Amino acid sequence: MNVPKDPPSAETPPGPPRGAATMAIVRWALVLLTGLLATGSILSFAGLHLGSGTSASSGQIYYCPMHPSVVENHPGECPICSMTLVRKPEGKASPPGKAVLGARTAGVPGLADVDLTPERIQLIGMRTATVKREAIGGDLRTVGVVAANERGLAQINTRFGGWIQKLLVSETGERVRRGQILATIYSPEVFRAEQELLLAHGWSTAAGEAKPSPDHEDLAGGLDTNARRRLELLGIAPQEIDEMLRIGKAVEAIPIRSPVDGYVVGKNAVAGVAVQPGSVLFEVADLSRVWVNADIYEQDISRIHVGQRGRLELASYPGEMQAGKVTFIYPVLDSGNRTLRVRLEFKNKSDRNGPRLRPGMYGTVYLDLPSTAGLTVPAEAVVDTGETHYLFVSKGGGRFTPRMVKVGAHLKDKVEILSGVAEGETVVTTGNFLVDSESRLRAAIEGQTSSEGAAVQSSTCSTEFDAQRFPDKVQACRACEIQHRGMGTMEDDCKNAIPKPWR
After folding, report:
1. In this model, does residue 104 exceed pLDDT 50?
2. Three-state secondary-structure class, residue 289
3. In Å, what is the CA distance from 215 to each residue of 200, 207, 322?
4. Torsion of the alpha carbons at 237, 155, 169 and 184, rounded to the nearest 10
5. Of the residues 228, 298, 424, 485, which has the maximum number of CB atoms within 10 A of its CB?
């Protein structure tokens, strides 16, 4: 028999749904986790600001290597180029990208001392050398150009008109001998003068045989002399006149002979062409001795004198030296390149191919100099602006200072220093271009200009910043103007990146 169960009593409350306890545990776990995260964020935020304040109070500075005018007291990115700001190394008075304030170098406008870390020195491959006192002498090297000896140049022309009958030298560059016939010319004027001489000579001979009166003999002799003199004035050689009198017949083809030994360097004569008096038919150059014109720098002029020995080395004959000497120093200085021309004279040897020294050849000229003592540095250490000379002296500890110097003689790969450095000092040789760029940039950050700190023209920095309250920001603003003037919007971008107190 089935007994029915009793229905539940209405007074007994129902139990919690299934999973309620689990949800409660999860809910409290989430609340606890959120609290922990909030606490960590607050502590992290407070620690960051505390660290920043500590960094600022301890003098920590962060700067942009590309734009050293961007300086902050906390890490971040450069607002101009987005590069990560670099922290200033410990123990430095200023960051490597920023010049030491007040480190102006007397006599070198627009430059400032440079502080570089060992890593940057190694990165740019810098090399240094020591200023040494050593013997200065040996030789002075310069470039020379071979030229024809002007004393051996001859222009061959005629004093009469006519026509070229025959051309015996028809090529430029051909070697000719003194007295060699170059061409023959027919001239009606010379032909008539020859006939007159023959006639006068015949009268003089006949008068001498017939023994006439003295007056008749003097007249015949005078006609003979005058006719001969006329041919000589027309440029006919005495031996040509004697030969014509010997054969007793006027010569139609007048020979044109070379007055010197040498080479035909110019030819205007063509067979059958009419010739006018004074026309240059040939140019002959005697190349047995040649000139070499060399340019000497202005600072070396006092070391050159007439009679000084010199040597010439041509690229065509490497290792072979030609001996000569200085024969003339030109009186005028070339204002364009500040050099003085010096002329040397050399004997010109010949081989089967002709003269070894040919006009137009370039070569290296070595001038023997007396030996003296002086300070020298490698030539690459000196920065030449065209108006001034300076170099960078190492002060140790990664600091380099620009120094104005006065240079003397240039000796191969070295330069004589007359003043500005002392013996034993260390100067930068390789990498000084990068050091120079860094020095100019840092001088610009200081607000220096080429006129030793003159204010930037049309500067707006004084209006943008309060110079009394924020002089450092005015200085950074002027650095932007110096660095980026004329570079589009980079100047405005640089100024906008300077932190403003009211931001």
Report:
1. no
2. strand
3. 15, 11, 67
4. -40
5. 228
